[in-house]
Amino acid sequence: MIKQWAFVLCMGAGLAATASAQDPKPVVGQVIGAGAKAPGGDVEKGKTLYRTSGCYECHGTVAQGSPRTGPMLLTPRPFEGFLRQLRRPSAEMPPYLEKVLSDQQVADIFAFIQTLPKPVDYKTIKILQ
């Protein structure tokens, strides 16, 4: 039952975000795939989209994730893999198709996530050694 509600909330938030989002100008960014280019991302727009499209509801406000709701997004991942996971999720996440989030909006969210502090390696914490 909880998973069904999470799906409804995530999809509803994503559709609402699409309706209110402005169409950003594409900027050429990193190379992905066979010659395709990922759009450059706008961190501030990504921060807003992360919150308004429902990402934080499962992945946390700083992408820290949770075993019960969604994985941490702070691990290194190329844009191509990030986009593929959003379009065709392998877990119980709803798909965010292009009519919900454009490639540019996904690039903005990806850029925002890249600015978040990475988790500390537990091996560097003295009390845990």
Tell me briefly what this model is.
With 129 residues, the protein is mainly alpha-helical. It has five helices and two strands; from the N terminus they run αββαααα.
- Tell me the major beta sheet: 2 strands, antiparallel
Total strands: 2
- Give the averaged pLDDT, no decimals: 77
The rough form would be described as globular
Distance between the termini: 41 Å
As for the number of domains, it is 1
User: Helix tally?
Assistant: 5
Provide the gyration radius in Å: 15 Å
Strand-pairing-aware structural class: mainly alpha
In CATH, what is the homologous superfamily? Cytochrome c-like domain
What would the CATH topology be?
Cytochrome Bc1 Complex, Chain D, domain 2
CATH architecture: Orthogonal Bundle
| Uncertain residue segments | 1-36
Q: In what order do the strands lie side by side in the largest sheet? A: 1-2
Strand content: 5-15%
CATH class: Mainly Alpha
SSE pattern: HEEHHHH
Estimated helix fraction = 40-55%
